[in-house]
Task: inverse folding
């Protein structure tokens, strides 16, 4: 490894630090609606500094967890979602993985200082990079036959402890909700069991787990839980599955807390929140109707955009689907058959923003779409940023990339049943041992997590980290 | 970098702290390794085992498996 530029320069406030990551858990549930079912979390809140935590734009697993662990925004990291343009051609997209990261994450900084780390299930850790400790890669690992542990010899130990490790739920888009729910419980239980085993059998200074199960639960079961969801049925058999699962998750938290001593700092965090999904906006259909996108031939049935015969000589913009939309302009001298003159770029972008913000629902009501220019929200824009980032209906509507549906609005996801979309705020619960927490606070951002961990461990915070350590409540430096 | 490379040799010399060398020598005494070097090579091979010369990019099969999972999950 390269020599570190960081050094341990001020007295640590904790001996060790542990991060519990609960993908997608929103403040509305963790701090309010589910709190009665979460006695361990409730007890923690009484002595913690906590509040909603603003995620990245976009609030998506990639880049959010990596931004959290590097304190760098997606533009600085140079990836803006799971898939990013590899070049300025119309088709080449790459999927961000651990090799896409050029900035050290907290555990890499600590590894270089000789501290021992345990990392389980954090997204964007495949392929595994060498660390000073143990690593189980995240859900973007191809499958269980891949090398999902570091060191390689750890794999046998994993299988001895939990049997077949579950990287992610299989067959997520199933209508067999009973089976999906069982799979989610099994995935969560195995992951926490493995994490506890590693905590108990390895030396560690920093440990982190990310449970993906709550995110999959939200997407798969939100309509059963949320009375405001358009497809909610109050008599459905899964009405209580959300609270049951949160209760089980709280029990897992409790078992971790039992393994902690009074010299260990703790963060419970999520990478984004969740909200009901009202429907989908067919972004490319909309662009066609608005005159930005032309096809050489209309599809007779719904097809992926990548399969469409686009007339690029008459196209100004196209879009990608997902929980949010990315829109790309077809710029002269940049794209192979660019049509937007460079001099007109900003005017075309502004006009497009104005039209996007006017999108209405089928009843003619404005859905409150928000549009971002990457250059306005990131400190840098490395690699190829989208020209616009779009939250349809402030993320109550997802972006549908498919064309040929014959409508701007759809109430079925093009990738199968899905009840929820991501929201901008996740959670942050910081517990400093031996200190009173500051209670509920506003203003925490996802960029504050990495500096907080380094601060508590007495490690200099790299000057290019965006965030600041969370203050916490009154406390005394730990005797060391 | 603390390495020396001979143009003709397929091996390089790496310097490690003397106390660490001494500690390893005690550790492997009677454990079946011919030398401290043998032990270090064994450990490093294990640690670097899956970082072969193709580690800088995933193969097409791996990428397709990940893409399908992302699509199924709704991210794409």
Result:
């Amino acid at each position: 490894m390269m020599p570190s530029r960081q050094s341990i320069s001020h007295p640590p406030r904790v001996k060790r630090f542990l991060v519990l990551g609960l993908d997608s858990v929103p403040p509305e549930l963790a701090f309010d609606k589910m709190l009665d079912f979460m006695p361990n979390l409730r007890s923690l809140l009484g002595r913690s500094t906590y509040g909603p935590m603003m995620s990245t734009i976009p609030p998506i697993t990639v880049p959010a967890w990596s931004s959290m662990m590097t304190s760098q925004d997606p533009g600085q990291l140079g990836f803006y979602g799971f898939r990013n343009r590899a070049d300025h051609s119309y088709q080449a997209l790459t999927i961000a993985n651990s090799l896409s990261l050029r900035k050290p994450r907290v555990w890499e900084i600590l590894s270089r200082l000789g501290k021992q780390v345990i990392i389980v299930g954090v997204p964007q850790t495949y392929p595994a990079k060498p660390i000073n400790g143990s690593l189980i890669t995240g859900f973007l690992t191809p499958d269980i036959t891949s090398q999902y542990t570091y060191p390689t010899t750890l794999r046998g130990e994993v299988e001895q402890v939990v049997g077949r490790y579950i990287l992610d739920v299989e067959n997520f888009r199933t209508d067999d909700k009973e089976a999906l729910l069982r799979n989610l419980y099994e995935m969560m239980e195995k992951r926490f069991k493995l994490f506890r085993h590693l905590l108990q059998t390895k030396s560690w200074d920093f440990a982190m787990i990310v449970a993906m199960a709550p995110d999959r639960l939200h997407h798969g079961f939100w309509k059963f839980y949320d009375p405001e969801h358009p497809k909610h049925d109050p008599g459905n058999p899964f009405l209580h599955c959300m609270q049951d699962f949160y209760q089980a998750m709280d029990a897992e938290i409790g078992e971790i807390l039992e393994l902690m001593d009074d010299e260990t700092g703790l963060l419970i965090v999520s990478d984004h929140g969740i909200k009901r999904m009202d429907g989908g906006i067919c972004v490319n259909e909309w662009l066609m109707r608005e005159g930005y996108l032309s096809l050489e031939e209309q599809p007779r049935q719904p097809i992926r955009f990548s399969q469409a015969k686009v007339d690029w000589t008459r196209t100004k913009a196209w879009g990608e689907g997902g929980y949010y939309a990315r829109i790309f302009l077809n710029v002269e001298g940049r794209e192979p058959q660019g049509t937007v003159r460079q001099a007109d770029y900003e005017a075309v972008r502004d006009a497009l923003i104005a039209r996007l913000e006017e999108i209405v629902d089928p009843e003619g009501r404005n859905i409150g779409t928000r549009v971002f220019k990457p250059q306005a929200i990131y400190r840098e824009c490395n690699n190829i940023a989208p020209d616009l980032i779009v939250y349809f209906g402030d993320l109550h509507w997802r972006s549908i990339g498919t064309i040929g549906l014959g409508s701007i609005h759809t109430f079925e996801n093009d990738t199968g049943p899905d009840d929820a979309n991501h929201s901008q705020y996740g959670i942050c619960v910081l517990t400093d041992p031996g200190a009173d927490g500051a209670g509920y606070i506003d203003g925490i951002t996802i960029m504050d997590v990495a500096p907080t961990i380094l601060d508590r461990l007495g490690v200099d915070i790299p000057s290019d980290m965006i965030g600041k350590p969370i203050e916490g409540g009154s406390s005394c430096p730990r005797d060391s | 970098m603390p390495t020396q490379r001979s143009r003709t040799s397929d091996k390089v010399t790496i310097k490690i702290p003397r106390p660490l060398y001494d500690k390893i020598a005690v550790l492997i005494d009677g454990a079946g390794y011919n030398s401290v070097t043998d032990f270090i090579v064994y450990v490093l091979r294990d640690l670097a085992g899956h970082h072969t010369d193709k580690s800088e990019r995933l193969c097409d099969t791996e990428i397709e498996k990940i893409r399908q999972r992302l699509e199924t999950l709704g991210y794409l």
Observations:
- Residues 16-275+423-456 of chain A form a domain with the Alkaline Phosphatase, subunit A fold (CATH 3.40.720.10).
- Chain A has two domains: 16-275+423-456, 279-417.
